[in-house]
Amino acid sequence: MPDDLLEVMRKRIIVGLEREKTKEAIQGWERSASLTLKDGRQFNFLVKNNNITVNEGAIDNPDMRIESDADTIRKLFMEEMSAAAALLTRKLKVKGSASDLMKIRHIF
Predict the structure, then answer these.
(1) Sequence spans of domains, the chain
(2) How far apart are CA 31 and CA 70, in angstroms?
(3) Can you tell me the mean pLDDT for 61-86?
(4) SS3 letters for the chain?
(5) Which of 7-16, 17-26, 27-36, 71-80 has the lowest mean pLDDT?
(6) Is the pLDDT of residue 107 over 90?
(7) CA 42/CA 24 separation, integer angstroms
(8) Over 90: is that where the pLDDT of 55 sits?
(9) Is residue 71's pLDDT more than 90?
(10) Rounded Cα gap, residues 6 and 95, in angstroms
């Protein structure tokens, strides 16, 4: 997968932040998440001040841990696959609280 995955995630987050459901889901929500891809690359997400940022690299003590592959993450962000489908097929693994898991569906 090309190295533009970070750029795809950033662009799609901007699009997502224009949606009312996303805005409502992250209102007052402060969480961090780590994403580890099967190829070893790591990214981190920070939800704070009604915004979502994504960067390369690992973070200490994230609230959620996400594991997947680059193709699945790309499909999630491009809305070619739902988070529910990715979870059911085990292409996406998320560890976190139940309430956080319910909110994350509005981010992907």
Answers:
(1) 5-103
(2) 22
(3) 94
(4) CCCCHHHHHHHHHHHHCCCHHHHHHHCCCCEEEEEEECCCCEEEEEEECCEEEEEECCCCCCCEEEEECHHHHHHHHCCCCCHHHHHHCCCCEEECCHHHHHHHCCCC
(5) 17-26
(6) no
(7) 27
(8) yes
(9) yes
(10) 21
CA 53 – CA 51 distance, rounded (Å): 7
Q: What's the mean pLDDT when you consider all of the chain?
A: 90
The CA-atom distances, in angstroms, between 108 and each of 10, 60, 66 are 12, 22, 12
Structural contact between residues 59 and 44, judged by C-beta atoms closer than 8 angstroms: yes
> Between 3.40.50.1820, 3.20.20.80, 3.40.50.2000, 3.30.1050.10, what CATH number should domain 5-103 receive?
3.30.1050.10
CB burial of 40-61 (b: ≥16 within 10 Å; e: otherwise) equals ebebbbbbeeeebebeeeeeee
pLDDT for 1 equals 41
Name the pTM for this structure.
0.87
Task: Give me the percent of the chain exceeding a pLDDT of 70.
Answer: 94
